[in-house]
Amino acid sequence: MNTFPASRRMALWIDHAKAHFIDPDQPMIPIQSVHSDLEPRPRTRGESPEGVRLGGYRSTNNEHHRNNKEEAALRDYYRLLADRLEVYPEIYIFGPGEAHKELNNLLLEDSRFRKHRIETEACVPLSENQLRAKVREHFSSVVS
């Protein structure tokens, strides 16, 4: 059973490539970044959508195999983020695309987060100063 530190909050800006942890309780609001292992893979010479030639052999490059690798990388990335967020009772997750929704769904299924207050919001990519301002604004408007 987790016991939370008094008034601990964390904001997380996330997309599939990286996540920024933003602690609103720190005076300078530091940003810590975590990068995922998910990267687009460029096609090499001799490669087609169906496979790649390796000498006299041919290796598969099918979509099912690529999707499995991408899903595994995302799953590991989200688990790493969830482990770091576990100690914060109040969590604000925001970002572009679907990553903030996917992480939120994972947290809702995780029994460690049953007593957490989690809020999500869609947001465009922002500069570091804009991230800090958005986090400040969000937590100033939230009544604890």
Give an account of the 3D structure.
The protein has 144 residues and is of the alpha/beta class. The protein has one domain: eRF1 domain 2 (Nucleotidyltransferase, domain 5). The protein has helices at residues 63-85, 99-109, 128-141; strands at 9-14, 18-22, 31-35, 47-48, 51-54, 57-60, 90-95, 117-122. The strands form 2 sheets. Strands 3-2-1-7-8 form a 5-stranded mixed beta sheet, sandwiched between helices. It has a 3-stranded antiparallel beta sheet with strand order 4-5-6, with no helix packed on it. The model is unreliable at 1-6 (pLDDT under 50).
The name of the CATH superfamily reads eRF1 domain 2
Average residue-wise pLDDT: 81
Largest sheet: 5 strands, mixed
Q: Could you tell me the number of beta strands?
A: 8
Task: Assign a percent range to the helix content.
Answer: 25-40%
Broad CATH class: Alpha Beta
Q: What name does CATH use for the topology?
A: Nucleotidyltransferase, domain 5
